[in-house]
TrEMBL record, chains A, B:
Keywords: DNA damage, DNA recombination, DNA repair, Metal-binding, Zinc, Zinc-finger. This is Recombination protein RecR. It comes from Marimonas arenosa. The keyword DNA repair applies. CDD domains: TOPRIM_recR (cd01025).
Length: 197, 197
């Protein structure tokens, strides 16, 4: 159906987004076409705007609309604490929690022998620079509790040894978490890190 | 973060799409921002194009880029068979199965006392007109095997009684099953085994 080529192309492009597959992409596109004035046109306009304005912070790797993101630009966030995360999504999760008041450093992934990801691919040299340049007193590693995440944490701790205090998020049972749903590793870590009540 | 307002708005809009939630919308938007030249700009352009060109076929309700869709415009598809589906997604599922060679009629839903959906809301009058206007010999009801789907099938069979042969997809469609979830083979088998209503 040559005249529906654009619709097919749109479905195909949407299907490649993380979290969507061919079926949900078809549903989403039909939904958008049905509400094209109310939804599809505004969405396209917004994407155009974001494509033109979004950029990565040159300092920390956060996503925003200026070369230096709001968090790096805010003097209030210069409290000597620097939280290291793998991904911008993790930074956003920390911000939603609303408990961390310092600045961030987004690695952009983890070290991976398998995928040939080395320190230079991960803004680790920039992290080392920032510790001095921004008078950091504590680096908090908030990396995922995966093998690659922990390998990366150890590598960073080695790099920063002696120059700054390095801590990491505690591992354990999430609030509201049910033991029966947790993997063995989490239960094991929670048991090892048990504390007096 | 006022300067990231557009990014937040984009996430919020994406999160409303069927199949996406807040978390997958955030992931999708980060992915799009990372690949903004390769993915976000082309996607926005394509959405703009589709918003400007997509429309519902005035005859059958299919989605395409002209007032009369390719299937209705094709003389080859005028074989006297008319397949009635609830939704455009179902029409696409039938087309992917590749076994039906006639034309379609998209109802746009099912009769529903609960949601106050009556025959006029469903292109049923138009269906009755088409049976005569297009010399239809057989109406094949390919409605979902839900209570509302079957109620609608019986209502349509009553309306068309005496004027045309009415059949429905048979064994192969599981109870409570929706066409769009079925594999091509199941749809194909159900069409071949269709029976009188
Ligand atoms: Zn920043
Ligand atoms: Zn049509």
């Amino acid at each position: 159906m040559s005249s529906t080529r654009d619709i097919d192309a749109l479905i195909e492009m949407m299907a490649k987004l993380p979290g969507l597959g061919p079926r949900s992409a078809r549903r989403a596109v039909l939904h958008l076409i049905r509400k094209r004035a109310l939804l599809l046109t505004p969405l396209a306009d917004l994407m155009q705007t974001v494509a033109a304005t979004a950029r990565e912070c040159l300092n920390c790797g956060n996503v925003g609309t200026s070369d230096i993101c709001d968090i790096c630009a805010s003097e209030k966030r210069a409290n000597g604490e620097l939280c290291v995360v793998e991904d911008v999504a993790d930074l956003w999760a920390m911000e939603r929690a609303g408990v961390f008041k310092g600045r961030y450093h987004v690695l952009g992934g983890t070290l991976s022998a398998l995928d040939a990801v080395g320190p230079e691919d991960l803004r680790i040299p920039k992290l080392v620079d920032r510790v001095t340049a921004e008078n950091i007193a504590e680096v908090i590693l908030a990396l995922n509790a995966t093998i690659d995440g922990q390998t990366t944490a150890h590598y960073i701790a080695d790099q920063l040894e002696g120059s700054v205090k390095v801590t990491s998020l505690a591992q354990g049972v999430p609030i509201g978490g049910e033991l029966d749903y947790l993997d063995d590793g989490t239960i094991s870590a929670a048991l090892k890190a048990r504390r007096d009540v």
